[in-house]
Amino acid sequence: MGEINQEYGAGEDGPGGAFEPEATRRDAGDAESSRASRSWWDGNADEYQDEHGAFLGDDRFVWGPEGLDEADAGLLGEVAGLDVLEIGAGAAQCSRWLAGRGARPVALDLSHRQLQHALRIGEEVGAVALVEADAGALPFADGSFDLACSAYGAVPFVADPVKVFREVRRVLRPGGRWVFSVSHPIRWAFPDEPGPEGLSVSASYFDRTPYVEQDESGEAVYVEHHRTLGDRVRDVVAGGFRLVDLVEPEWPSWNAQEWGGWSPLRGNLIPGTAIFVCERA
Question: How many Å apart are CA 96 and CA 78, to the nearest integer?
Fold first, then answer.
């Protein structure tokens, strides 16, 4: 699961004189976005797993910071006996959950370091097949899988989501399901803050300009792309899928944690996650 970090400011020296990336909004294409994502996740995988590993579990399938669990949601349907591709798998927690229910998962991620965490956890809990690759160029034959899924993986970070969706469609068998979650598009209009300061609109919902953190030379080190809700629906259709359901999880009373801009305060007022349930057309 990724995080939006929309705090804008000029780059400056941080602790120990290290340069802090400059946060801005500007165009970023496929190649730059992919390069930045690989580098960012490789560099931040350790901290990410330390901070969020307990919430994500070792073999749990959670769709977003709200804590909606696939064991309760049932958005994937019956998975036993199915070949499943998890895209943007991180440390492959979701794939291990799938394996525990009789599926044959393959966990794919762009980040080598994230997959090293998958190997580490797999030695203790149970290994799954791992593949390091870009979601826009899936290294699988046509019709290799019955089901594809992604919990905050890949889709928010790519410049051309339709390209990814068409790749997913290509590797799915007829009737295959594609279920993915992203940060809810409405969140882009608000500051990425969990407290009261995050409840006032600060940007246009219709501004599709990517959020970029860049280094001293102006090269992106982190990129996240915004699509409106309507854009996402159109992208799904253009990618060759039929939208079956759109799930906006409500914030549960048991969840007291803050995760970036997600929090009980905001979660009780505006949606934080959108889950798209699609079938191969």
Answer: 15
Question: d(Cα 19, Cα 185) in Å, to the nearest integer?
Answer: 30
Digit-by-digit pLDDT tens for the chain (281 residues) are 444 444 434 444 454 556 689 999 999 999 999 999 999 999 999 999 999 999 999 999 999 999 999 999 999 999 999 999 999 999 999 999 999 999 999 999 999 999 999 999 999 888 899 999 999 999 999 999 999 999 999 999 999 999 999 999 999 999 999 999 999 999 999 999 999 999 999 999 999 999 999 999 999 999 999 999 999 999 999 999 999 999 999 999 999 999 999 999 999 999 999 999 999 99
Dmax over CA atoms of the chain, in Å, equals 55
Indicate the DSSP class of residue 87.
E
Residues 222/199, Cβ–Cβ less than 8 Å? no
Name the one residue in this structure whose structure tokens are 């799930």. 247
Residue with tokens 């070949």: 83
H or E, element range at 116? helix 112-125
Half-sphere exposure of 196 (CA within 13 A, CB side): 0
Beta carbons within 10 angstroms of residue 14's beta carbon = 10
**pTM of the predicted protein model:** 0.93
Query: For residues 126 and 112, what is the distance between their CA atoms, to the nearest angstrom?
Result: 19
CA-wise closest residue to 23 among 150, 182, 210, 197: 210
Give the number of residues written for the chain: 281
CA distance 163 to 167: 6
Please give the DSSP secondary-structure letter assigned to residue 110: S
Residue 142 has a CB neighbour count (10 Å cut-off) of: 9
* Count of CB atoms situated within 10 Å of the CB of 17: 6
Listed residue (181, 193, 152, 186) closest to 6, CA to CA: 193
